[in-house]
Amino acid sequence: MNFGHVAHDYTRCRQLDRVPPPATLPFLDLSEHWAKMTRAATATEPVPGRAAGQENWLRRAFRGLFTFPAAILAILVAKAFWTCRDRIADTDLWWHLRNAQYVLAHRSFPTTDTYSFTAAGSPWIDHSWLSEVIYYSAYRTLGLRGVFVIFTLAIATLTIVTFFLCMKRTRDPFAAGVMTILGGLLAMVGFTPRAQNFGWLCFVAVFAILLRFRSAREAPLWLIPPLFCLWINCHPGWPMGIVLFAIMLLSGLIKNDIGQLAADPWRVSDLKKLAVTAGLSVAALFINPFGWRLVLYPFDVLLRQKLNVALGDEWASVNFNDSRGVFVIIMLAVVFATALLPRKQWRIDDVILTAFVLYCGLSHIRFLVLTGIVLPPILVNQIGNMSSYNPAHERRIVNAIIITVVAVMLIAGFPTQQVLDTQVSVLFPVGAVSFLNSHPQKGNIFNQYEWGGFLEWNLPQVPTFIDSRTDIFEYKGVLRDYFAISTFNDSQKLLDKYKITFIVYPTHTPLAYFLANNARWEQIYQDNQAIIYRRLDSVAGHS
Predict the structure, then answer these.
(1) Tell me, what's the pLDDT at 305?
(2) N or C end of the chain: which has fewer CB within 10 A?
(3) Which residues contact 360 (CB under 8 A, 6 or more apart)?
(4) HEC string of 158-181?
(5) Per residue in 285-331, pLDDT tens?
């Protein structure tokens, strides 16, 4: 029996709202072909009084936009937005802005330190100049709100790409969304307006291209060298990309399965393409304003900046007693569960990548961003479906409501300048800077490490003791002395050594207590955030 004419008449009637939806017609199941027939009917016989092209466009837009994956993606973007909304205050932001200000004003790059008195004149490389220019350009246009826009776009892009990488390995948008959120919770440690955000964007782009090439043996490998060139000028984290490339390349040299681990060997033609891409990528690293010195900088961090790595908060290992540690435990549980009860055979390269990013993230929390990007698309392939999603049965009205609500929340929740200023005032000595601008102090300052950049941006006439650039201060021994002063290891002797005449430091800290009970110092300012002490005796008499 031919039901072609029935389908045609049914579609036309549905356009005029004269019959119930397809699910109520037991004699004809049109669920699989509903979209195709609707488009065909609308194109050939438009409803009188309407422009056929306009109706087709609106219908296609509605059907394509308001899908369940789109709703999940909207929720993920909202999560990224609200995370960034409360994280505008970062210790590095301020000296990044000052660097970019110098670059754009002088059309050259700073090569020596001009911000501190302890490392003044020391050779220095502005290793994140391109990221700084982007942030500063936004700041000059919209203030901190401009920085927020750039920062949020970077994090949202990371989230979106991670979600799509997950969707490449599962048919369930809900599972992809859950894994993306879990990865984002791990990566939150790096979600502040820092130069490394642009480095992670380069990483996820390289990761996506290599995954595409691995699965289809065709991908735009030619984009990888320009990405490495962009990466080294944005942030010195590019060695992670080289390690990623090496793992995926070398894993493909294994020709046979190893136990339950599946091998996926490269063809000779694949190896040639990857080898050329690798060579060009390494060459592209040298396209930067500082040449080989910038290429070697990441290795300088590992070999020469040992105190920075040993004592810096972001270089610490995971603390399983805080909320971040809980997220890591959850991810580890997922890894172990999928390893013990795999739904699909694990690939050799996926196992190596998983081990590598877990080692990096557990050893240094700053690399949990790496863990949060790489693990979701690997694990989503193993956990299987978490919902009964069927593209043929989209609930487009519900999806449209979710997407609309998210859009309204993003618009209504866009932070005002006052909201962002309040965040800054909670973490930085805004009142103390105002006091020092109206009551200038003579001599050398001792300041908290995290406040150095803020002082350099808002009090540029006062050279600081230290800031969070760290490298030059470790080279000069200043970082070691800073920790000694802060922990009462010959504090007064070292303050005399550097001829410190006033101190800006957080209230309710051991050093503040030490100064309050030292007759050689007097308090001249205090608020809830900072306290300022001024030396009473002569520096020369105790130097």
Answers:
(1) 87
(2) N
(3) 240, 367, 370, 371
(4) HHHHHHHHHHCCCCCHHHHHHHHH
(5) 999 999 999 999 999 988 888 888 887 788 889 988 888 888 899 98
Q: What is the average pLDDT score of the chain?
A: 88
Q: Is the pLDDT higher at 341 or at 150?
A: 150
Q: How far is CA 338 from CA 31, 261, 334, 382, 383, in A?
A: 35, 13, 6, 6, 7
Helix (H) or strand (E) holding 504, with range, is strand 500-506
Q: What residue type is 83 in one-letter code?
A: T
Phi and psi for 66 in degrees, rounded to 5?
A: -95, 65
Which one-letter DSSP state was computed for residue 188?
A: G
Classify residue 91 by burial, with Cβ atoms within 10 Å: 0-12, 13-18, 19+.
buried
Please state the pTM of the whole predicted model: 0.86
pLDDT score at 58: 63
Element of type H or E holding 505 = strand 500-506
212, two tokens: 């595409």
Asked if residues 52 and 139 have their Cβ atoms less than 8 Å apart, the reply is: no
Say if residues 384 and 175 touch (Cβ distance below 8 Å): yes
